[in-house]
Amino acid sequence: MKKKAPSPADGPVLVSACLAGRACRFDGSADPDDRVARLVAEGRAVLVCPEEDGGLGTPRPPAEIVGGDGHDVLAGEARVVTAAGVDVTDEYLRGARVALERARRRGVTGAILKARSPSCGKGRIYDGSFSRKQSEGDGVTAALLSQEGIDIVTDEDQG
Question: Which of 1, 17, 80, 141 could form a disulfide with 96 if both were Cys (CB 3.0 to 4.6 A apart)?
Answer without folding.
Answer: 141
